[in-house]
Amino acid sequence: MKIPLETVLPQDIETRSFAIIAAELGDRVLDPLQAPIIQRAIHTSADFDYADNLIFSPHAVEKAWQALRQGAWIVTDTNMAKTGVNKTALRQLGCEVHCFMADEDVAQAAKANGTTRAVACMEKAASLKVPLIFAIGNAPTALIRLYELIREGRLKPELIIGVPVGFVNVVESKELILSLDDVPHIVARGRKGGSNIAAAICNALLYQLVDRAY
Amino acid sequence: MKIPLETVLPQDIETRSFAIIAAELGDRVLDPLQAPIIQRAIHTSADFDYADNLIFSPHAVEKAWQALRQGAWIVTDTNMAKTGVNKTALRQLGCEVHCFMADEDVAQAAKANGTTRAVACMEKAASLKVPLIFAIGNAPTALIRLYELIREGRLKPELIIGVPVGFVNVVESKELILSLDDVPHIVARGRKGGSNIAAAICNALLYQLVDRAY
């Protein structure tokens, strides 16, 4: 079978993809700081809904950059999202990414308290004494617990990336985060999101701060 | 802020999600062997397009099960997809999942040959002497190389899960796989897909073979 392929060098595929995405977004005006994040979410999903559903609190991008320049830790709610965050970029900034979902103490705490493991993860993360960015692509219960911890004065994250995907309490959990005036956030309103979107947003933030010629 | 949440026990969230997905699919008739795979792709993306774009070659599911019962290796083109495949389920069947993208010999081969690393990964995998399932969620170049290796008689995989996402040669690479009459495949026709979808399809296949009460 003969199928004509577009000739693009390996190192040019991403640039070409972003050009196609920009072209298809047409004359839609995106905030220049938000555009690379929106475009990378579309790049990772081929789903243009992210041009409409990604909501940024005021100055969320600048605040995220500030935290990343201070060596923030990114905490994810899946090992998939953790795997997807670019380690070379993190290293250049002195940042780290962590996921506690597979930790034995988290499994025990979740069982003892009758919560999801994601809730136990958020409680474990809340005790960390470093600037924290949460990247939640799976568990609405993680977002709900983050909201409670913030309201209880036990947590003040630098940024919440609130993009769990799904059908049970997902929409509601995101509305809770959107209601937080005092915590920077990037939220995919509605049902859509995922570990891939969480990682893509982290990477979009990182790539604007580092030299990607690696 | 008060947002009413649905009360669902942690262990019941997935069941409830699948019930919602089934309800929203309405009276659409899905093949009973394909339905759990289609529904899990929707579950992982909240994108009902997967009800339309997932194409199964004849008996793809039964052939995948046969391979998994024989201890097949799943080869992915991203570490994210590898991370997303359920390890407990794999262990129960004596299967393994591998990704060669970060291997030093793959980086060298890609550089020497001017290919993507994904192409070098497929060539490395083609030399393995075990039943192989390919789960490609990212790189169209991986699918194109698989097609060539099969046509050259150098590879006979048990199944290709062809779900790369993107904008450059993605659609075309999937059409190549769809044209293979002699290789079982599950393909997300069009631009959509991703590492999350690749892992979700693997897990949907695995979950129908194992006891999930872990």
Give a description of the structure.
2 copies of one chain form a homodimer. Chain A is α/β, with parallel strands linked by helices. The first copy, chain A, is 49% helix and 11% strand. Chain A contains 11 helices and 6 strands. In chain A, strands 1-6-5-4-2-3 form a 6-stranded mixed beta sheet, with helices on both faces. The radius of gyration of chain A is 18 Å and the shape is globular. The first copy, chain A, starts with 12 loop residues before the first helix and ends in a 7-residue tail after the last helix. At the A-B interface, α1, α2, α5, α10 and α11 of A face α1, α2, α5, α10 and α11 of B.
- The number of helical segments of chain A is 11
Mean pLDDT of chain A: 95
The biggest chain-chain interface is:
A-B, 48 and 48 residues
Oligomer: homodimer
How would the global form of chain A be characterised? globular
- Widest sheet: strand ordering of chain A: 1-6-5-4-2-3
- From the N-terminal CA to the C-terminal CA of chain A, the straight-line distance is 36 Å
| Cα radius of gyration of chain A in angstroms | 18 Å
For the largest beta-sheet of chain A, the strand count, sense and barrel status come to: 6 strands, mixed
Category by helix and strand content of chain A: alpha/beta
Strand percentage of chain A lies at 5-15%
Uncertain segments of chain A are none
Q: What is the percent of helical residues of chain A?
A: 40-55%
Total count of strands of chain A = 6
What order do the helices and strands of chain A follow?
HHHEHEHHEHHEHEHEH
